[in-house]
Amino acid sequence: MSFHGVHLIIIIYLFLCAKIDTSPEYESGDVNHEKTKYFRDENQPLLSPTDVQWEKYIKLIEQAEKDHLNRTDDPNLTVFHQQIDRDFSYWKNQSIDGIRRQLTVSEATAHAHRLTLYQIINHRLYRQTEDQLIFPARNHGIEHFLLNIIDSLPDMEFLLNTYDWPQNQPTIPILSFSKSLDSRDTDILYPAWAFWDGGPALGSVYPTGIGRWDVMRQTLNKARQTYPWSKKESRGFFRGSRTSPERDPLILLSRSSPDLLDAQYTKNQAWKSDEDTLGYPPASELKHEDFCQFKYLFNFRGVAASFRLRHLFLCGSLVLHVGSDWIEFFYDRLEPWYHYIPISTDLHEVKDILLFAQSNDRLVAKIARQGRDFIWNALTMQNVELYWKELLLEYYKLFGNPQKPVTKKAKFMQIHRRPKP
């Protein structure tokens, strides 16, 4: 072979080597690549018992990948608009005239159920005075978004719930931040106050609340860069108070299998002794960015949906989401086995899932990246504000009564902008 021929072969070889992805971050991993390790063709030997154990999870991930690719979204709708359609579907099947009659006594309803009655009149915002509110700070967080969009809204009034739990009233529409699918709650979801202000406060690390979503996005993105996938610990992680005994199996598994996860209870307001943290002293609280050093992060509901979920995704870690009952407005767009791995509330499969994750690093890294990218790109402050606008315009379209002008209540106060938290 001539010198030029050898030289050409070397060039081609070097070019092909440059195309091979050797990055430990698995930025271009795919399901098919991982699947080949566990599924045989006619020329491959039978699967070992260990490989068969993971086959069920790989098939779930493969199906989620197909479902995602086959998903068709209406190009005329914004990213979370389907949740608005779902929330109003119940009300569109009710007597609109009957609902409008109920809304004529909305001030009495607000007083009876400790709700906030908002009025929008000539692009000004009104409600009860501060002493009539259950959680004024929560209202302040909500009002940031209402004032941002008020020039786009017609005269209207609506009832809003700032409690953690929904109201589930069958004859009058109420806006709530969270609701239960199992209970078929009739509440209409709105983006929680916590995107801007109003808590929740978390002990010593977040004494006045987790903080604005736009700020936390940047904080968690820096933490993700500090702890890229290759530098994260290959263990599960959970810190939280014992708001429900359904979390106990995870804590006990951590004590028996610390190589799999680090899960510990912290104090809450009800804590009196180590008995309240399953016989161990309460663990120190950590900021959300400290969670990012672990690969697998657990999310549990609290009294209702957890404010923590969206933050966990931005670590670039794999989110293990326990239960599927309680939702916020953006949950519908999160796809199990594509954006996160679902865990049943009894946690019976949790050890198996952690072993699977440790044995399939490239595959779960891809899910982690997909979940993070979705929350980063879709759950922006701009889209939160847009959701508020679409929600209230849809509300007015269904319940508004142009024939009856909205009149300011006698003791209501006008709401003005507040300094940034």
Automatic annotation (TrEMBL):
The keyword Zinc-finger does not apply. Residues 1-22 form the signal peptide. It holds the Pfam family Glyco_transf_90. GO terms for biological process: positive regulation of Notch signaling pathway; protein O-linked glycosylation. Keywords: Signal, Transferase. One of its GO terms (molecular function) is UDP-xylosyltransferase activity. Residues 152-402 form the Glycosyl transferase CAP10 domain. InterPro entries: CAP10 (IPR006598), O-Glucosyltr/Glycosyltrsf_90 (IPR051091). One of its GO terms (cellular component) is endomembrane system. SMART domains: CAP10. Belongs to the glycosyltransferase 90 family. This is Glycosyl transferase CAP10 domain-containing protein.
